[in-house]
Design goal:
By secondary structure, the chain is mainly α. It has helices at 13-55, 60-74.
């Protein structure tokens, strides 16, 4: 598959079709992976939102602990209300 452009003119039809099939398979996997990554990111945002909502309803002692743990897990600083 890693051919120099000067060798492209010497490809047989079968080699060319095989290369196209390999590229199509790779592209299909990338599209599936992209959809999966987008779904995971949406779920991550929802879980963070739910965690923040829950933390804001705790007593001050427990609230600080919840915020600290959320900050540690997500590696982000969240607004503390």
């Amino acid at each position: 598959m890693n051919r120099k452009p000067s060798k492209w003119g010497n490809l047989t039809i079968k080699e060319f079709e095989r290369d196209i099939k390999l590229l199509q398979e790779t592209c299909r996997h990338l599209v599936i992976n992209d959809k999966y990554v987008n779904l995971l990111e949406e779920q991550r945002k929802e879980l963070i939102s739910l965690s923040l909502w829950s933390a804001r309803r705790l007593h001050k002692i427990h609230k600080n602990f919840a915020y600290n743990e959320l900050d540690k897990i997500t590696e982000q600083k969240h607004e503390r209300l």
